[in-house]
Design brief:
128 residues; mainly alpha
Amino acid sequence: MKNLTTVGRILFALPFAIFGLNHFLMVDFFTGMLNSFIPGTSFTIVLTGIALIAASVSIIFKKYIKLSCILLAFLLFVFIVAIHIPQLFDDATKMMAMFALLKDTALMGGALMIAGIYQKGENEAGIL
């Protein structure tokens, strides 16, 4: 069981590292997604990429995992509110926005579940 949950934790974390790398490689693409009320577009995108990579590394290596998962869930919530919900009102992006909103909602739930399993100061949860 421990091996299965370890693989699941790593598989959960790896996409965030890839998403973070994409924030460095595709700054122009992500700039087009941001609303006008989000300040410092390029800086915000790079900072978000750093946060995603840091969360992924933290989850994989089980360091500060509870804090990382709570902050990751908050970041995903910000994505939902600031990016995906406004895109629901644009007919051209409505369908993709709905998929992205549901994906980020599921990932936010996964991050909160992992945060709930790990306790502050513990390297390993009882079931993982």
